[in-house]
Amino acid sequence: MPYLKIQLDNNVFQSREIIEAISIGRGEQNTNDLIIDDARCSRSHARIYMEGDQLILEDENSSYGTFVNDQRVDKKALQNNDVITIASQKIWYIEKELSPCQFVLDYRNPNLVDTNWMQVLKAIDVEFIVPTVADKITQAFTVLYEKINLLIKMGIVSNTFMNSIRSAASNAVKHGNQNHPQLCVFIRVTIVNNKLLVEIRDQGNGFEYTKELKKVKKSIEEHNKKNMGINEILKGADMVEWNLVGNQIKLWKNFSAQNTQLSHRDFEESVAVIRTKQNIHLI
Question: Start and end of every FHA domain (predicted)?
Answer without folding.
Answer: 22-73
